[in-house]
Amino acid sequence: MSNKFCVTLTHAKNDPDKATVAFVVANAAVASNKETMVFLSIEGVRVATPGYADDIAEPGFAPLKDLMSNFAKAGGKIFVCSPCFKRRGLDETKLVTGATIVGGAKLVEFLSDGSPCVSY
Question: What is the CATH number of the domain that holds 86?
Answer without folding.
Answer: 3.40.1260.10
